[in-house]
Specification:
The complex is a heterodimer of chains A (about 110) and B (about 110). With about 110 residues, chain A is mainly β. In chain A, about 0% of the residues lie in helices and about 50% in strands. Chain A contains no helices and eleven strands. In chain A, the strands form two sheets. In chain A, strands 2, 4, 5, 6, 9, 10 and 11 form a seven-stranded mixed beta sheet that branches. A four-stranded antiparallel beta sheet of chain A has the order 1-3-8-7, with no helix packed on it. Chain A starts with a strand and ends with a strand. With about 110 residues, chain B is mainly β. Chain B has no helices and eleven strands. In chain B, the strands form two sheets. In chain B, strands 2, 4, 5, 9, 10 and 11 form a six-stranded mixed beta sheet that branches. In chain B, a hairpin with a 2-residue loop joins strand 6 and strand 7 (about 60-65). Chain B is globular and about 45 Å long. The N and C termini of chain B lie far apart (about 40 Å). The chains are: A mainly beta (about 110), B mainly beta (about 110). Chains A and B meet through strand 5 of A and strand 5 of B.
């Protein structure tokens, strides 16, 4: 199993550009989520999905869109990048929303918006 | 209030010493308290977790102590080693709301040889 994979690993954007961060998991997990990690602020939930076709907003959803057309993939779209979106982005998955099982994280995407 | 407050922000411990990281919460709707460990350039990974019906859980050198009445829980690392140097996050699972994890701000731990 590859676990949770994320691409790209690094990305530099100019203000106003759009892009998609890719996330895929091969563990057949129902629950997937996107976090951003900023110094001194821990992990903040952007969007999450409890299954294919179902998504919902987390704590900091503004400026981001998601979709979940398959169990495996959960892309995160930045609509019009802003410097405030400079961060490290992590995708995570776990078997079900209600599961006590651990949440598996991808290696992260470091995004810089100029 | 959904916050989980974690302290200290950073911690330096001598090799062989005990590292202690504390977290506090206010929301009684939390029902599961995991600790995650993150090495530089990597995603967080589950280290140890506890449910509120027990006061302590130990796995090797790592122990969670849980005080339900005080709404506090802490991570103790015994015989700390340089390989334990990492950022540690506490979290709390919120019942309902699709069981989201609410995260502490993280503690950067450095173990000096």
């Amino acid at each position: 199993n590859a676990g949770v994979t994320q691409t790209p690993k690094f990305q530099v954007l100019k203000t106003g550009q759009s892009m998609t961060l890719q996330c895929a998991q091969d563990m057949n997990h129902e629950y997937m989520s996107w976090y951003r990690q900023d110094p001194g602020m821990g992990l903040r939930l952007i969007h999450y999905s409890v299954g294919a076709g179902i998504t919902d907003q987390g704590e900091v959803p503004n400026g981001y869109n998601v979709s979940r057309s398959t169990t495996e993939d959960f892309p995160l779209r930045l609509l019009s990048a802003a410097p405030s979106q400079t961060s490290v982005y992590f995708c995570a998955s776990r078997p079900r929303a209600s599961s006590y099982n651990e949440q598996f994280f991808g290696p992260g995407t470091r995004l810089t918006v100029l | 209030q959904q916050q989980v407050k974690q302290s200290p922000q950073s911690l330096i411990v001598q090799k062989g010493g005990i590292s202690i990281i504390n977290c506090a919460y206010e929301n009684t709707a939390f029902d599961y308290f995991p600790w995650y460990q993150q090495f530089p350039g990597k995603g967080p990974a589950l280290l140890i977790a506890i449910r509120p019906d027990v006061s302590e859980k130990k796995e090797g050198r790592f122990t969670i102590s849980f005080n339900k009445s005080a709404k506090q829980f802490s991570l103790h690392i015994m015989d700390s080693q340089p390989g334990d140097s990492a950022t540690y996050f506490c979290a709390a699972r919120l019942t309902g709301s699709n069981y989201q994890l609410i995260w502490g701000a993280g503690t950067k731990l450095i173990i000096k040889p």
